[in-house]
Design a protein that fits this description.
By secondary structure, this protein is an alpha/beta fold. It is built from seven helices and twelve strands. The two termini are 18 Å apart.
């Protein structure tokens, strides 16, 4: 059985590790190619886009794929909808592997925003020195905030428009609580901006901000396709794949629609 994982996350890599060598299962992980030196999972790896839902549909039919797992980043909205459309067009079973979002606890000073643009509107009233952890692709929304200073952390160097007063840290998680405490202190950060990515790798910044009494602007997740089954961890995704493997028709006959 051929499993295609739409990857780029820690969970996707872990899923590929768990499925690699599983009897009767071959794994291909697809990466968007936005990171210069990604951590490659075991199994086959392809890099680059598919060319929209039609391109993904054609790829599923050409290779062929028996089950599809959308383990992309919670903010990869377009890819999730492309996956749902391609799965519906081909009849390939689709599972979404999405890490749970963060939940505020006592002491948090969170300010929710529905988009980077809403975050921009909130910032001037919250602080002057901003720790911006939304990734290098979304800096353009903040480019006109010349009166604020930004510390931007990303895996690769940002490109395109960005705030005039910007310092960049090229780092890859996971991050430690002690490290995040020191970062906020050293750079005199007074407000944090983050996407609700969830997971443990980047969560220590939230604890450090809470301890320091700093406001945090949290950008909510975008909507996701309806009707797609969702699991929260790779282990449950493995069980889902195993159930589909065990239910396959005798002789490995495909149940995909033409």
């Amino acid at each position: 059985m051929h499993v295609l994982i739409l990857g780029g996350t820690t969970e996707a890599r872990r899923l590929a590790e768990l499925l690699h060598g599983m009897p009767g299962v071959a794994v291909t992980t697809s990466l968007a190619g936005r990171v210069a030196s990604p951590r490659l999972p075991p199994g086959e790896v392809r890099v680059g886009g598919f060319g929209g839902p039609e391109g993904l549909t054609a790829w599923l039919r050409a290779h062929p794929v028996d089950v599809l797992v959308d383990a992309t980043h919670p903010f990869a909205r377009a890819m999730s909808f492309h996956a749902a459309g391609a799965a519906a067009a081909t009849g390939v079973p689709l599972l979404a592997l999405r890490r749970p979002g963060w939940v505020p606890v006592e002491g948090d000073d969170w300010h929710e925003a529905g988009s980077p643009e809403e975050a921009v509107a909130l910032l001037p009233g919250l602080g002057r020195r901003v720790f911006l952890t939304t990734g290098r692709m979304g800096l353009a929304a903040f480019a006109d905030l010349d009166e604020l200073w930004f510390l931007v952390r990303s895996v690769d160097a940002p490109e395109g428009p960005r705030p005039a007063r910007t310092e960049t840290l090229l780092e890859r998680g996971p991050f430690t609580l002690d490290g995040e405490r020191e970062l906020l202190r050293r750079h005199r950060v007074d407000v944090v901006v983050t996407k609700d990515s969830g997971g443990a790798a980047t969560a220590p910044k939230l604890t450090a901000a809470r301890e320091a009494g700093l406001p945090v602007v949290v950008i909510r997740r975008p909507p996701v396709p309806e009707g797609v089954p969702v699991v929260a961890d790779p282990e449950r995704a493995v069980r889902w794949v195993g159930e589909h493997r065990d239910r396959r028709a005798p002789g490995g006959a495909s149940r995909r629609a033409d």
